[in-house]
Amino acid sequence: MAYQVSKRNIFQRMLGKPATGGPADAGCWQVEGSRLHIDLARAGELADPYGAISFVGEGLAHPVLVMRDGQGNYHAFENKCAHGGRRLDPVAGTDTVCCCSMGKAVYDYDGQVLAGSAEGPIKVFPVTTENGRLRIELA
After folding, report:
1. Which among 62, 51, 61, 57 has a CA at the least distance from the CA of 134?
2. The domain that contains 39 carries what CATH number?
3. E-state strands within 18-119
């Protein structure tokens, strides 16, 4: 079965440049212990289906990709491809995320490899929504 990947040109893939950036409002998130908290009112990138934000630094042990699917559910992943360690991007209109590099690894929302050169799954973090905030368990 063929899977879609994010539309990236050859140079973006060679350099491993993801399409998903950090939050426009740097104050929309915080780390408390082993939890990442996101204020949805301030994280406009997650307002639309297939919107996503990459979180890096500020107490995180590793980068985290947070996205919203087409049904309005939120998903969080360690933002590191199992193939070559590059970043991940959601694939709009599908229930998948893919690697930004030449390997074009495609994963489902459970982190399992569907296509591409990755040999193993990516890490998926549990997400809960409460009072307009996301809580992501990183441990």
Report:
1. 51
2. 2.102.10.10
3. 29-32, 35-39, 52-55, 64-68, 74-78, 88-91, 96-99, 106-108, 113-115
pTM score above 0.70: yes
Task: Specify the 3-state DSSP secondary structure of 13.
Answer: helix
Q: Domain range holding 90?
A: 10-137
3-state secondary structure of 15: helix
Model confidence pLDDT, tens digit, residues 46-93? 999 999 999 998 889 999 999 999 999 999 999 987 776 678 888 888
Angle at alpha carbon of residue 105, lines to 103 and 69, rounded to 5°: 140
CA 107 distance to own-chain centroid: 11
